[in-house]
Design brief:
This protein has about 230 residues and is α+β, with helices and mostly antiparallel strands. It is built from three helices and ten strands; from the N terminus they run βββββββαβββαα.
Length: about 230
């Protein structure tokens, strides 16, 4: 049986335009051809991508951050996360920056937990989730001054069993937090039995997005090229 994996595919895009220029996101309308369905038109959120951090301390607790999210009118428990909105910034550097800015922490040990397409039916957003351990507090004088929704952050260190229970009971609904909690639970349970999980290094390639042009605001989309050779 062949290895199970998603398959990147570049269709022939015949038209691409900004249908709506928003305060944070642009909505792009594209027309493209698939071998099985030519002339498709789809609107999508042009997203720069993001990173998230599952932060685990020496007591095997995970750090959760509560933040107000206006589209769902709720204060959600999440993990530290942020956009890849600094041109040319490496995802790991972005994750370290977000950990400092959102949690006042640095970490000695980093690994990749997962790469995800969060809402692929309507957004180009991809997220790399990291595991951070070996934590240190950022000195008070060097801490980031949080503003807007971040000014209302609340923090809680939670045992992994309590976090899992909250996910199963429907009390934690943020998808990235759920993924982080499930991944950390798997790792901690394996380590407790002496069979640690093999994780990827921070420089492991992002298989679906490495080599793809930046697709956030202001991106240029090729509307002349054919589908990738051998894919049509």
């Amino acid at each position: 049986m062949s290895e199970l994996h998603d398959e990147p595919y570049d269709p022939a895009i015949t038209a691409s335009e900004i249908a709506y220029h928003g305060a944070v996101w642009d909505i792009r309308r594209e027309t493209f051809d698939l071998p099985e369905a030519p002339g498709l038109v789809r609107d999508l959120m042009a997203h720069t991508g993001a990173v998230g951090v599952a932060v685990v301390d020496d007591e095997q607790r995970i750090l959760l951050v509560q933040q107000y999210r206006h589209p769902v009118r709720a204060r959600l428990w999440e993990v530290p996360a942020g956009l890849l909105d600094v041109p040319g910034e490496d995802p790991w550097d972005a994750a370290k920056r977000e950990l400092v800015e959102e949690a006042d922490l640095t970490a000695d040990h980093w690994q990749v937990l997962s790469d995800s397409c969060l809402t692929p039916g309507g957004s180009s957003e991809t997220l790399r989730l990291y595991l951070a351990r070996g934590l240190h507090d950022v000195p008070e004088a060097d801490r980031h001054q949080r503003s807007e929704e971040e000014a209302g952050f609340r923090f809680r260190w939670v045992s992994i069993d309590d976090a899992l229970e909250a996910v199963v009971a429907g009390r934690i609904t943020n998808a990235i937090a759920q993924l982080a909690i499930l991944q950390v639970s798997r790792i901690l349970r394996a380590e407790a039995t002496g069979t640690p999980v093999q994780l990827r290094a921070v420089d492991a390639p992002r298989l679906l997005v490495d080599g793809r042009p930046e697709f956030g605001r202001g991106a240029e989309v090729d509307t002349t090229g054919p589908a990738r050779p051998g894919e049509d």
